[in-house]
Design a protein that fits this description.
The structure holds 2 protein chains of 2 kinds.
Chain A (H helix, E strand, L loop, with lengths): L2 H7 L23 H13 L3 E5 L3 H5 L12 E3 L5 H14 L6 E7 H6 L2 H10 L3 E7 L36 H6 L5 E6 L3 H13 L3 E7 L3 H4 L6 H10 L6 E4 L2 E4 L9 H6 L9 H25 L6
Parallel strand pairs in A: 1-2, 1-3, 3-4, 4-6, 5-6
Antiparallel strand pairs in A: 5-7, 7-8
Chain B lengths: L1 E4 L1 H11 L4 E3 L7 H12 L6 E3 L4 H13 L4 E5 L1 H6 L1 H10 L4 E6 L13 H4 L7 E4 L3 H15 L8 E6 L8 E4 L3 H7 L16 E2 L5 H33 L6 E4 L6 E5 L2 H15 L4 E6 L1 E3 L3 H8 L4 E6 L9 H9 L6 E6 L9 H13 L6 E2 L5
Parallel strand pairs in B: 2-3, 2-4, 4-5, 5-7, 6-7, 11-12, 11-14, 14-15, 15-16
Antiparallel strand pairs in B: 1-8, 6-13, 10-12
Classes of the chains: A alpha/beta, B alpha/beta.
The complex binds thiamine diphosphate (TPP) and magnesium ion (MG).
């Protein structure tokens, strides 16, 4: 069924750009959230895009030499250099009079929250002209599911075994980026492709450092069936584990609200990486999710559009 | 146009003369004046370049890599700790075949903190695919950077170059440097136009996952490029001479034609060794100096040809490969035929210790009298 037929049949209007830039021969696992993220991102950004991709699953997903699935130029860079390499690319393009090309740094959570944070902070402080996308699968998946500072409290990984599961909260990368006073920072989720596409299109229309934190489940690492990736991703937002919001020039807007948020327990239950948790662990996680959500609401009250009026 | 310039200014003016389009660098003593003057020249509009003021050397080279891959001519400069911090990306540049030029002010590695001359920093980057030049004076710094772009950007070469200048002995010492004129330099070094780059009209991936089916050939090609570079370096050095009046080779042989005793060395020690050779020749001692300009590709042919005529030779290293010997000594040894000449390795001047004319005269004399050991320490204190 093509897009036009689909539109006729479904009550929803398909708003995603139709063109497929990512080709189907890529190497992602079945149900890979990171592959969906790239597919939507390329739809949003178009072919006038250059990617800088560090070591991460996407270094493999794009395909081995001499193949490339991305459909746009890809520079594979060192693990911690997504932002610094992209800085070089974007400055060169501007020097060469090719400003209309969008430079995108595309990195995993490890390459962003951990080893690449210094380079990212530098590029953000300089306000280098790029879109930085972190697809967050909450661990080092490429190397076989080791914890990162994006791994949430309670999760099993190979370096946080169930007997000593990950303790402590996920690093709040959005707040770190907002603290750099960049023009645009937003969260997005592969379960809401229209929102993701809209945000990337908005980001493309701006200049300077634009940051997108994209939620991208990993069936292999999270221990769930490939078929439920989108369900889990949607659940993460529906229970406020992963709120969808944006901060434009310091102004907060929450883009999705849940009048009756689902219990976090439902989200945790869907993934093998949380199966060892006891009732009190789940309650603790729920309390933290509630607290973080309240904090975000206060930020929006204080620094949202309504705040200034 | 001639100017009195420090080695650092010569390096910065060479980047300007090469019309680099993107600079990214991070300050470290004794390289700092390079980034300072370039910041000033870019701010004044005397150099039409973007200077990316990064937060580390690691990001500096990463940014140069991105910029060069996107089709810009780039320049960076560092020293010792900074070069070591770049190490992963030094490999990256070499394997990505990006002809970036890096001015490295040779400085000792910590601890203890030392800001003085020592080549161990650059030697540690030996196996990365970069070409390496060691300069004797500030004019050579300026000229070598121009030639490094010209040579490195050749389609059959595509290799980055580390242009080394000794801490303080060059970086902060003023000498007369001929900056030539822009017209002749532009004719010698046309704009950078890579055949392949990041190009939305021709999307490719660079540096993708590479199976054993391909990796081996990539390495083979880097070695072949280094081998081809020997001739290109020699030709370019000659052409440079015909345009600007100063010729260069992979090495420079000083009074070696009839020399019985030859000291092989590099960097500023070469200049001191020439004075020592002159003094000894006044006394009838037939001394010569073989200055190695290019450590990579290693000038095996020159070394064999010139040392082959000597009775004995020595290699003076301002660096050491612990557990073996001076790095230039082992390289020299490796290319000489078993028959000789007798070869001595001198370790001198580590961490900026002065290497005097008298020291070098004594090394020449040791070649005549010596036991030809792989390591002879010069002036080591008990
Ligand atoms: C300097 C360096 N250290 C370690 C590695 C090994 N390594 C490659 S990818 C990776 C994890 C990547 O995790 P993330 O950024 O979250 O991306 P994902 O694999 O989850 O997609 C690691 C540790 C490396 N390539 N380079
Ligand atoms: Mg990850």
């Amino acid at each position: 069924m093509n897009a036009a037929e689909l539109q006729k049949k479904t009550p929803f209007r398909l708003t995603l750009p139709e063109e497929e830039i990512l080709s189907p021969g890529h190497l992602a696992c079945q149900g890979c959230g990171a592959a969906m993220a790239m597919r939507y991102a390329l739809k949003a950004l178009g072919r006038n895009t250059i990617l800088s991709i560090p070591a991460c699953c996407w270094a493999v997903i794009d395909g081995p030499f001499p193949y490339s699935a991305a459909g746009v130029p890809v520079f594979h860079c060192a693990f911690e250099t997504a932002a610094s390499t992209a800085a070089g690319i974007t400055h060169a393009l501007s020097r060469l009079g090719l400003d209309e090309i969008t430079t995108v740094a595309w990195a995993g959570d490890g390459g962003t929250f951990d080893i690449g944070l210094q380079a990212l902070s530098g590029a953000a402080e300089r306000n280098d002209n790029m879109i930085y996308v972190v697809y967050d699968n909450e661990a080092y998946m490429n190397t076989g599911i080791q914890r990162s500072s994006a791994t949430p409290h309670g999760a099993w990984t190979t370096t946080t075994p169930t007997l000593q599961f990950k303790k402590g909260p996920k690093k709040n990368i959005m707040e770190i980026m907002v603290a750099h006073s960049i023009p645009y920072a937003a969260t997005a989720n592969i379960a809401y492709p229209e929102d993701l596409v809209k945000k990337l299109q908005k980001a493309r229309s701006l200049r300077g450092m634009r940051f997108l934190h994209v939620y991208a489940p990993c069936p292999t690492g999270w221990k769930h069936a490939p078929g439920v990736t989108v369900k889990i991703a949607r659940m993460a937002t529906e229970c406020n584990v992963f709120p969808i919001y944006e901060v434009e020039e310091g102004v907060y807007s929450i883009n999705r609200r849940n009048p009756n948020p689902k219990p976090v327990a439902e989200y945790l239950k869907m993934q093998g990486r949380f199966h060892h948790l006891r009732e009190e662990d789940v309650q603790f996680i729920q309390s933290r999710v509630d607290r973080d959500w309240q904090r975000l609401i206060k930020l929006e009250q204080a620094f949202g559009k309504a705040a200034g009026t | 146009m001639k100017k009195v310039l420090t080695g650092n200014f010569a390096a910065a003016y060479a980047a300007v003369a090469a019309r680099v389009q993107v600079i990214s660098a991070y300050p470290i003593t004794p390289q700092t004046t390079i980034v300072e003057i370039l910041s000033e020249l870019v701010a004044r509009g005397e150099l039409a370049a973007d200077f990316i003021k990064v937060e580390s050397e690691h990001s500096a080279l990463a940014a140069c890599i991105g910029a060069q891959a996107a089709g810009a001519r780039t320049f960076t400069a560092t020293s010792a700790q900074g070069l070591a911090l770049m190490h992963e990306l030094i490999h990256w540049t070499g394997r990505a075949r990006l002809p970036i030029v890096l001015a490295n002010v040779n400085r000792a590695m910590a601890p203890g903190w030392s800001i003085w001359a020592d080549a161990t920093d650059a030697i540690s980057e030996r196996d990365t695919g970069w070409m390496q030049i060691y300069c004797e004076d500030n004019q050579e710094v300026f000229d070598s950077i121009l030639m490094a772009y010209r040579i490195g950007e050749r389609a059959e070469i595509l290799l980055p170059t580390l242009v080394n200048l000794d801490a303080f002995f060059l970086s902060h010492t003023s000498q007369v440097v001929d900056l030539y004129d822009a017209e002749r330099i532009d004719a010698f070094l046309p704009p950078y136009r890579p055949a392949v780059k990041l190009d939305v009209a021709d999307p490719r991936s660079f540096g993708a996952l590479t199976s054993p089916d391909y990796y081996y050939e990539f390495s083979y090609k880097i070695q072949k490029a280094h081998e081809a570079a020997r001739q290109v370096i020699a030709e370019t050095g000659k052409e440079f001479g015909s345009v600007f009046g100063r010729s260069y080779g992979l090495t420079e042989a000083y009074r070696c034609e009839d020399a019985e005793y030859v000291l092989v060395t590099y960097g500023t020690i070469a200049g001191t060794a020439k004075v020592a050779a002159d003094r000894l020749r006044e006394k009838g001692f037939r001394a010569g100096v073989l200055k190695i300009r290019y450590f990579r590709p290693f000038p095996a042919e020159d070394v064999v040809r010139i040392l082959g005529r000597a009775a004995a030779a020595g290699v003076v290293d301002r660096a050491i490969s612990y557990g073996q010997a001076g790095p230039f000594y082992t390289e020299t040894r490796s290319v000489l035929p078993g028959a000789g000449p007798a070869l001595t390795g001198f370790i001198a001047g580590l961490g900026g210790r002065d290497v005097s004319v008298a020291d070098l005269e004594s090394m020449f004399l040791q070649l005549r009298d010596g036991k030809h050991s792989p390591i002879v320490w010069i002036g080591v204190k008990p």
